[in-house]
Amino acid sequence: MSSWSSWLSDRSSEIASSHKVQLGLTAAISTGIGVAAVLGLQNSRRWYNVHDLKGSIPELTSPHDIERINDFGGAAPEEDHDRRDDERSAALARRARLGDYDEALILEQLARNRVFLKDEGLAKLRGAFVVVVGCGGVGSHATAALARSGCGRLRLIDFDQVTLSSLNRHAVAALADVGTPKVLCLQKRLEQITPWIHFDCRNQLFGEGMADEQLAPWSDGQQPTYVIDAIDNIDSKVALLHYCHRKGLPVISSMGAGCKSDPTRVFVGDISASAEDPLSRTTRRKLRTLGVKDGIPVVYSSEKTGPGKAQLLPLPEDEFAKGRVGELGVLPDFRVRILPVLGTMPAVFGLCVANHVMLKITGYPHDYVPSKARDKMYDGILAQVQGLEERVAKHCGYDPVGLRIPVNVDDVGYLIEEVWHGRSAVSGLTSRLALTRWRKPVNDWIDGRTPGQKADRLQLDELVCMTKDEMLKHETQVLKGDRTPEDVYDKSVIELVARRWETERIFREQR
After folding, report:
1. Of the residues 145, 174, 225, 506, which has the fewest C-beta atoms closer than 10 A?
2. What was the pLDDT predicted at 7?
């Protein structure tokens, strides 16, 4: 034991007398103290940060600043910062439109379009004047795409304001824009992206009586290069399309994006080719009465409705009980029912519209979805109706020579496509279609008062679509036989025919 103590005492004496060992111990102790201090400081900071975060969370009973939301449900700025930013953006846009903006910057921003469309195509787009009528979900996305791509002049026409429900599908609107006109919202937001674009905003409802003014040339006389129809009101849509067709203005129309969910079934094609879309069907029907049956490109969806899919929401019964439902609309003859809309689909439609317009303006090669090209089929059906009427006339004791029917090719196309939706009323088949009288004609159904002419008093709402085989059977059993349609067909067929005729009568009264 004494030897161990002696050895330890000797070693202690050596360490105490060694200067290097003393420095090493001092350094080790200092390092340990420093590490402990850093760890302690980090723990302290972490504790204070957590404490401050918890302290920033208000209690449930704390008063709320209700002035942060305005009367329209939009965000009210807490200070003038946002307003100053908007003013600076508007001032920059004014200078840019006057030429105070570096051309190299514009070309850099449009570089991807430039290499795609080439200099000639981009120049055409930058020199274009496009009118967008309707600045909701579809129109806003079309406008934004055209502005971002460099379209030089944009006239925006829409009477409506941004609402909270607009924000699920509008291209650029923010919460702070709620309650402001859609056209001004688009201009303000897009000027912050492409300040050199020229805007002409019209916070107006498009109307046939104002078409000459609203679709007038730009202030320097430039005619509209293209017109975009993004209206969801049928009467205004038909008026715009008919005006453009009559004046020779290039136009593309967006059909219904509501209740649609499949982007793979969205097409660009002639209006005569659009299908499975009530808005398109009604628009076609009204345009046909004005002599327009094709020649208008449209964006449409071929998606069919089905169980579990969204439908147009009906008005509650209590609203009908209150009186005339037309008074519920924002404007006369404007829709009052809520249309279910998946926010992505108006964007798909709008971008398809803008894409088509850019390709047409720049002359970029593109294929067009072909129309039904069924004029030859309509000619054949018309000849078949003529032959059927002559056979029935002969069976009833009339001389069929010189018999004239009051039906033309356009009437046949209208009946087949718009009234009977291209299907047999009996079987629902779509091939080898024909038209036939539904009931046996009554006495004096041929007018022979004009010398040398025999006029058939056949009315369009007496004709029903069937296949040729069904028509021949119908001719034998009903038109030449003793049976009535009720004796031959199921109740569902009888009701379908009555329903289609009633719809056509209502539509004819509204024309």
Report:
1. 506
2. 52
